[in-house]
Predict the 3D structure of the following.
Amino acid sequence: MTPLRSRLDLRSDAHRANRAAMAALLADVVAAQDEALAGGGEKYVARHRERGKLLVRERVDLLVDPGAWFLELSPLAGWGTGDPVGGGLVTGVGVVSGVECMVIANDPTVRGGSLTATSVRKQLRAMEVSRVNRLPLVNLTESGGADLPKQAEIFVPGGASFKNLTRLSAAGIPVTTLVFGNSTAGGAYMPGMSDYTVLQRNAAKVFLGGPPLVKMAIDEDADEEELGGADMHARTSGLADYLAEDESDAIRIGREIVAHLGWRKAGPGPTAVPHEPRYDADELLGAASADIRVPFDVREILARVVDGSEFEEFKPLYGTTLVCGWASIAGFPIGVLANNGILFSEESQKGAQFIQLCNRIGVPLLFVQNITGFMVGTRYEQGGIIKDGAKLINAVSNSAVPHLTLMVGASYGAGNYGMSGRAYDPRFVFSWPNHRIAVMGPKQLAGVMDIVTRGRDPEGVAALEAQVEEESTALFATGQLWDDGIIDPRQTRTVLAVALSAVHSAPVEGTSNFGVWRM
Amino acid sequence: MIRRVLVANRGEVARRVFRTCAELGISTVAVYSDPDRSSPYVADADVAVPLGGTSSAESYLDVYKVLAAAARAGADAVHPGYGFLAENAEFAQACVDAGLVWIGPPPPAIRAMARKVEAKDLAAAAGVPLLPSATVAGDDEAAWVEAAAGVGYPLLVKASSGGGGKGMRRVDDVAGLADAVRAGRREAASSFGDPTVFIERYLDSPHHVEVQVLADRHGNVVHLCERDCSVQRRHQKVVEEAPAPGLGDDLRRRLHDAAIALTRAIAYENAGTIEFLVAGDDLFFLEMNTRLQVEHPVTEAILGLDIVRLQLLIADGGRLPFSQEDVRSDGHAVEVRLYAEDPRRDFLPSVGTLVEFRPGATPGIRWDTGVERGSTVTPHYDPMLAKVIAHAPTRTEAARRLARALRGLVVAGVDTNRDALVATLESAAFLDGAVSTGFFDANPAVLDAAPPPDVVRHAAVAAALVLRHRDRPVGPLAGVAPVGWRNVPSVAAARRFSSFDGTDLTVELPPGGAASGTVAVAGEPVGLSTDAVDDGGATTVVDGLRRRFTVTSDGETHWIAGDEWHVRLVEHPRFADHSTDAGAAGLEAPLPGTIVAIEVEPGQEVRAGGLLLVVEAMKMEHRIVADADARVTAVLVAVGDRVEAHQPLVTLARDGESP
């Protein structure tokens, strides 16, 4: 394969400015992450430690094989919503006893691990990642249940959690739940619906109704340990399959459970030699434009992400604003669709053809989005851009190979759809800090509104522009779980490699069954 | 003419003899015990004969087996090495009687020098000065006291048939005499099969100087200069050198002359060594070793000779190929004996498998080793790993070169006396030539030599990096992400070690797989930058110093080798083992059944695992054992009782619990 040749001028003012802008955006992301890492704050963290308990990420670290990875998903879920950033949960893909697993862990320092609407969405997303990628699920449970003042936002959608657990089990994806503390009321179904349960002695409390509720309901004076202690569940009710002496013992048992699964990945795995890219990943900080309106060559990103910077470009002279071609990351073959400008009819047709080709040979797709939309205007409408855009969306929607989507700039309008945006069920979506997402660019949107309102409400339009500006940032988007996390551009290759490896836990198969092509 | 030599020995000395045989085109035969089956010397020989047995007595000391081996292998000569049968006149005679060439002195000379008292009489007759001494025969303690008074205190009780320090005891006054004699007799009996002991005046901090001699069948006798072997622990030589430092010309000449005189007086033949104690300007005959000495290489180094070659030549009836005038020494040589033992723990032998043994590349060093990577150090034989010999123009250079070579040795799997040897060689006392048999008493600190804290810290960081690297995913997950990678780094990757001195040493690496940044070692922050990490080692900068450490592991024990120091760390398991926790196993009936036996009663102390009672159920007897050290507080059932599953049977007060 031919290596990509970088034309990035590292000493140019533009590159330096891009780099500085990206660094500043990244700093905001790190600051937001620090907020999530702080959990419920010093006071609650200290109290948690005084009880001899491990912090949530310490539990996860102990669970994951030393030396192996953990890709945390949605670390900034809830950003900008008023809910705690991170949703009081840590979710992610990590290697446990040599098996890539989905891990869902409560952070009990955040409101006692109780669940907000963000928590529910994040948890459901994690379960979806587990299901579609066939990743065994390990829950590290210690939760006060629904955040009662917010029960209205949670109760109905939250019920899907328990359904998901048993559906995972039915799909042959084992679910293991380690209980370190409260897992009561509805939460009792976390262990209840699991294939394997480990309850920590003198810590786990699993009951449908606690002593106050029991007193209220049937006027019984019940003891917590008798009602739902680990010992009781291990000896009497049988809800606990394993009784753990302490937290680390519970994690040890959880690791043994995963080890005995004899898990085999169903995907074909890497087939190429994973040479490092020829260009330094550090240069990715300046590879994308600081100003979303300034175009940049997406190949500069590919050259710093794919194996050996090698990229076999498909139809390089046709539909040139959609770069298509074959490459590999960490040895996993991928088909790449990457924007180098807005989509015209040719690009749409090229993309649709390329997606079909990748489906025929069972190669996962990487969509690299920097798209302000499909071309508009009389000439293009008359040229059938809707029909051609429909071909691309048809291909994206019915494609059966796994999709990964990487946001490296704009994601506006139907371009988001044609490039496998969140609603098109890509296996993973990751964003760079400079990412912007909206139905259209805020300025365009304001301009459209101005025209529609005939200029009678300039203040309203300005306010709308400001609002859309705010609601289209990467942080806002990730807060809404429109992606699976904002990543440091320099870590793109590793993030995608981990994601691809996870994807290969499930079978990787394409399809030839697409919707009717509008001709 | 000697064509095929059997070496009635093992390890390093067998290899030493084989090497010269190979150079001379003589074929070689090894003998070996069961534990030595895979020893390198066995593979070195052209043919090897299994002796069977494990202990020395069952193998290398069994004259019949060794002779049978010689016959079976078609050997025409026997070299005894040192130790085992080397100074056993009966064995030498048996070899001669079997028509084998005995590569050593005539049996009568061996016998004469083996009996310490007779040896002294012969030495005295030859005009060699003796230490005052006396025999202690019989069981009359009063006679012992009288004899001791004639010798004077302090004195040593020594085995008449012994050597190598076994059976020796120092007695400072009359009070300790009787016990020492009895203990000495016991040890002499068990070590040499002869309980006879004698007493001898003890000199405080004398020099141990010995003269190497060679004599052929034709009446030619030469000395090969002297060696100083003063640095000893428990009367075992540790450092040996040639020539001896600090001897005046006159004293040196008197030593050489005395050695030659005794050699001639007993019609000696082949290689031998006459040992003296030197105090001030006086020399006293100690004993004669009628064999090749462990420390012969220092003599070979300064004279450019191969003593084993000369032994073979003499045994074959040849003439010494040079005269005394031709013997000229060049420079200085120092040898140390590298032992698998822990000087910090009273030289406790350290047994185990050498997971690594790799001498460094220091020039001008001779390694005489009996082991290699994969060899096992067993409790059955002497735990010497190697003799290391440096030759240089001056004593100081030789000592420093030797110390450097020892620092460069990578050895893992057992503890060694390396640090103490290095500290000895580099000590001001040694370099000043202040060597005496009291060296370690005068310089006890060298025995405690240990890597300085900053090196231990650095080694622990390197070990943590290497071990994390080794923990990276393998198989289909290999190469997906950097070691320990996190997209949201937060938790320091801790590895908990115990240092060689028992202190806890937890290393917290930077979160997220970063190999540079701030590391905490035992809670102290340390700046780290990493240049290279692989499965075998790490090159890192810690405290502003760049060092390369290799890490060799045997289970949870890790030997971290640097260019200057070596550190042993034991990693704590990541997860505690709760299987022996009190309460982990219930003292309940495992299933419905009948009590068929009760082994304890209330108030009885029981050990963990001790049988409490037996329940018969489903035609099986189930033993109920104590889950911890405890005291029985109540037995809740009687023999014949029917019990239900989970019915409590016994209550225990475990240690630390009130009943």
Q: What stands out?
A: Chain A touches chain B at residues 33, 36-37, 55, 57-58, 60-62, 65-72, 75, 95, 98, 100, 235, 245-246, 248-249, 251-252, 265, 269-270, 274, 330-331, 485, 487-488, 491, 494-495, 497-498, 501 (CB under 8 Å). DSSP finds 20 helices and 14 strands in chain A. The two ends of chain A are 34 Å apart (CA to CA). The first helix of chain A runs from residue 13 to 37.
